[in-house]
Amino acid sequence: MSRIEDRKDDTLLYDLGGSEHPTILFLDAQGAVLARHDTGDCSVAALEATGAKVLRSLDLARKAEGDAGARADLAIVRCDLGVIEFSDLESEIEGLPLTAEQQKSVGVLRADATVADMMQVLRRNRDDAAKRLVAEEFVALYRAGTHPGRTGHRLPYWTVLAGQAVAAKDAAMLRDAIAGLRAIHGPEPSPRAAAQLAEMEKRLQEIEAAK
Amino acid sequence: MRRPLAIVALIGALAAAARAQSLEERLEEKLNKPFAKNAPWVLDFDEAKKQATEGKVIFAYFSRSYAP
């Protein structure tokens, strides 16, 4: 037995589309999901940032009718908050004039959706073909200059790219991957992360020395 | 965040390997941790929705004994 039986709200997590522990959601008074917090970063700052986006989405929802810019912003922020899928975002912004900033946000969300799809691929199958497909997709995102925004996506993204960079002896990509990973791990990385970063730095020096 | 939050903590699912402690003891231990004890968490979803009147948002946290 892994749970206390017959407790009220026992299936609520699953009813709300969650499955992992921890899961952090923001809900409205009717119990509808307003945000699925990216638990890759549960710092106070990250939670406050999600809370601020939730409030922004509520404000945008009030303005969206008759305001194409607000409608696009609302779809973007709702996708960013995990309330709608990227395919829904694409449908909602179709035909709307997007600002450069909105286009950039959509690009980041497209990268997040791609990484999420690739993580599903790896969950189903971890053979060489699957790993190669994931690596190719991530390298394509990197070459296009659109990187994922969610912490839970940035870690596998930059880790895979670091491996690809070492294999291809691509110093620029390895430098970017190390910077991306340092941004995730912060000034005090775990001993394991610190060791991985040190190894990557060593490889980078070797690649640069060989030029 | 300026607006008040109605808060709900739903700590229903617990660890499988309850050897030294019963599941109820593990739940109690979790609820006694500072993060849970030092805030007015609501453990009942209907009650949380009732408290989340106009302008308030429910912050829902799902955990289990061995998860953060």
Q: Can you tell me about this structure?
A:
The complex is a heterodimer of chains A (211) and B (68). By secondary structure, chain A is mainly alpha-helical. Helices cover 66% and strands 4% of the residues of chain A. Chain A has helices at residues 12-15, 44-63, 68-80, 86-93, 100-124, 128-144, 151-168, 171-185, 191-209, and strands at residues 23-27, 33-36. A two-stranded antiparallel ribbon of chain A has the order 1-2. In chain A, helix 5 (100-124) packs antiparallel against helix 6 (128-144). The N and C termini of chain A lie far apart (59 Å). With 68 residues, chain B is α+β, with helices and mostly antiparallel strands. Chain B has helices at residues 23-31, 34-37, 45-51; strands at 5-10, 57-62. The two termini of chain B are 23 Å apart. Classes of the chains: A mainly alpha (211), B alpha+beta (68). Chain A binds chain B through residues 1-4, 7-10, 12-13, 16, 18, 21-31, 34, 42, 48, 51-52, 54-55, and chain B through 1, 3, 5, 8, 10, 12-16, 23-24, 27, 44-45, 49, 52-54, 56-64, 67-68. Strand 1 (23-27) of chain A pairs antiparallel with strand 2 of chain B, so a sheet runs across the interface.
Describe how the helices and strands are arranged:
The complex is a heterodimer of chains A (211) and B (68).
Chain A: H1 12-15, E1 23-27, E2 33-36, H2 44-63, H3 68-80, H4 86-93, H5 100-124, H6 128-144, H7 151-168, H8 171-185, H9 191-209
Antiparallel strand pairs in A: 1-2
Helix pairs in contact in A: 2-3, 3-4, 3-5, 5-6, 5-7, 6-7, 7-8, 8-9
Chain B: E1 5-10, H1 23-31, H2 34-37, H3 45-51, E2 57-62
Parallel strand pairs in B: 1-2
What keyword list fits this structure?
heterodimer; A: 211 residues; mainly alpha; two-stranded antiparallel sheet; 9 helices; 2 strands; globular; B: 68 residues; alpha+beta; two-stranded parallel sheet; 3 helices; disordered N terminus
Q: Major β-sheet of chain A, in short?
A: 2 strands, antiparallel
* Strand element count of chain B: 2
Helix content of chain B: 25-40%
Q: Indicate the radius of gyration of chain A in whole angstroms.
A: 20 Å
| N-to-C order of helices and strands of chain B | EHHHE
Order of neighbouring strands in the sheet with most strands of chain A? 1-2
Helix segment count of chain A?
9
State mean pLDDT of chain A (0 to 100 scale). Answer: 94
